[in-house]
Specification:
Layout (H helix, E strand, L loop, with lengths): L57 H4 L6 H39 L37 E2 L2 E5 L8 E3 L4 E4 L4 E6 L6 E3 L10 E8 L6 E7 L7 E8 L2 E9 L9 E6 L8 E9 L4 E6 L2 E7 L10 E3 L2 E3 L2 E3 L3 E10 L5 H8 L10 E3 L2
Antiparallel strand pairs: 1-2, 2-3, 3-6, 4-5, 5-18, 6-15, 7-12, 7-18, 8-9, 8-15, 9-10, 10-11, 12-13, 13-14, 16-17, 18-19
Length: 362
């Protein structure tokens, strides 16, 4: 409280025993020098009715005392500034890192996905190389139709091949193969016929045969009373052989079947590229093992029996038989009869300008 003069009230006398506080009557004031002596008065204490304003220690009232509030405000302002700067630097770092990651994923230092070069001034269309369009999506290497793990994807056409319950896919380091167990339920079937047998065609597959006996067909076509063609393994005259056989009559009789057989090469537990061709103009069929022609035969034509493409089995006398035992891959169909150079390219997986009409597991 104040007394109206903006000064604190004069101190009241404290307890006689003293203690903390201002000087009591009869005590010397350590904060202020004694008043000058008056006439007739010595250097003793002032009269009891004389009061003094409370002393202010020099340490708290001098002009050099720091402004603590101002200093606190300045410190807080500096702290806020440093915080804003830290947040800004962190945000910039996030942007740079995200931008760098996007650059790496989309292009990277090797330039594999760099944007296509601009069209040259001499380009008549001004569109550059259409094969380098930025809208082109990467090629899908999935062996099956998306969302359909048991449906082989046609890499060259639009016909899927559905796996039977006894067939399965085998994933290897760089390829996928379809595996058959040599049982009645181990097969795969296309949605339709893949070959027009009244015209020239080629059917090819890489095959690995486990069986030592019987008839084992890797690829065939037809589900009526008989196949139209079949390609695979068979014991012929007591010898293990590769065979390409076509049906020329509509009843599936042995007398109306024509075939090419090779029994001079290994047929068991090793990979072989089997290729059968039909030249509709010359009316000839031929069998190739790897890139060597094993032989050819003259035919009157091929019977166009009903039914789709089959893997791992063939139709004989109205029943399914010739169950394949082992894996297959690189299954391809062409709408022409391939020659020596093209089949050599087929063996090396380089078909060049000769494109298949259907292909699976490539």
């Amino acid at each position: 409280m104040t007394d109206g003069t903006d000064r604190p009230n004069s101190p009241q006398p404290g307890p006689a025993s003293g203690g903390y506080g201002y000087p009591q009557p009869g005590q010397s004031n350590p904060y202020q020098p004694a008043p000058a002596p008056q006439p007739g008065q010595g250097f003793g204490p002032p009269p009891a009715d004389e009061t003094f304003p409370p002393p202010v220690p020099e340490a708290f009232g001098s002009a050099s005392t720091p402004d603590w509030q101002a200093m606190a405000d300045a410190t807080e302002a500096s702290r806020r500034k440093r915080k804003r700067l830290t947040i800004g630097i962190a945000a910039l770092a996030v942007v740079l890192v995200a931008g760098g990651a996007s650059w790496f994923v989309l292009g990277g230092p090797d330039g594999k996905n760099d944007p296509p070069p601009a069209a040259s001034s001499g380009s008549p269309s001004g569109s550059g190389n259409p094969s380098q369009s930025p809208d082109k999506t990467p090629e899908d290497d999935s062996p099956t139709v998306p969302g359909e793990p048991n449906l082989l994807r046609d890499r060259s056409g639009k016909m899927g091949i559905a796996l039977g319950p006894g067939a399965s896919l085998g994933e290897l380091a760089k390829r996928t193969e379809v595996r058959f167990k040599g049982t009645a339920d181990s097969y795969a079937q296309g949605a339709e016929a893949a070959v027009d047998v009244t015209k020239s065609f080629t059917v090819s597959t890489r095959a690995y045969n486990v069986a030592e006996t019987g008839s084992r067909m890797a690829v065939s076509q037809g589900d009526g009373v008989s196949y139209s063609f079949e390609l695979g393994f068979e014991v012929v005259n007591g010898k293990k052989a590769w065979v390409f056989r076509v049906q020329t009559g509509d009843k599936g009789q042995a007398a109306t079947a024509q075939q090419v057989v090779v029994d001079t090469v290994d047929t068991t537990r090793q990979w072989a590229l089997l290729t059968g061709t039909y030249d509709a103009e010359k009316k000839t069929i031929a069998l190739w093992v790897d890139d060597k022609q094993a032989g050819q035969a003259q035919v009157s034509g091929i019977w166009a029996g009903p039914g789709p493409l089959q893997l791992g089995r063939a139709r004989h006398h109205g029943i399914w038989s010739a169950a394949w035992d082992g894996p297959l891959d690189h299954i391809r169909i062409f709408d022409q009869a391939l020659g020596q150079e093209q089949i050599t390219g087929l063996k090396n997986n380089k078909t060049g300008k000769t494109k298949p009409t259907h292909s699976w597991l490539i």
